[in-house]
């Protein structure tokens, strides 16, 4: 499943790495793509969106929106 998060508070590549690491602590096999300019984080993972959102929140960033779709 692909889950897309809108994340506030990311301002540099360190932020990108922090978000990616936080997600991968919950799912080592997650495929994560971060668009720093738009604040979008796309995650391909079997983990529930709530768990991944919590990981981003714990890393110090604010998730303002979550959307998901089934991978094909």
Structural account:
By secondary structure, the protein is an alpha+beta fold. A four-stranded antiparallel β-sheet has the order 2-3-1-4, covered by helices on one side. The chain contains two helices and four strands, in the order βαββαβ. The protein is 33% helix and 35% strand. It has a single domain (2-69), classed as Alpha-Beta Plaits (2-Layer Sandwich), CATH 3.30.70.100.
Keywords:
HMA_dom; four-stranded antiparallel sheet; Heavy-metal-associated_CS; 72 residues; alpha+beta; single chain
Here the CATH topology equals Alpha-Beta Plaits
**What portion of residues is helical?**
25-40%
Main-sheet strand order equals 2-3-1-4
* Overall geometric form: globular
> How many domains would you count in the coordinates?
1
Q: What is the multimeric organization of the chains shown? A: single chain
How far apart the termini lie comes to 9 Å
Protein name: HMA domain-containing protein
Pfam family, one: HMA
Keywords: Metal-binding
GO molecular function: metal ion binding
Short description:
The chain has 72 residues and is an alpha+beta fold.
Question: Could you give the topology of this structure?
Answer:
Elements: E1 2-8, H1 13-26, E2 31-35, E3 40-44, H2 49-58, E4 62-69
Antiparallel strand pairs: 1-3, 1-4, 2-3
Helix pairs in contact: 1-2
Organism: Paraburkholderia domus
Pfam family, one: HMA
Protein name: HMA domain-containing protein
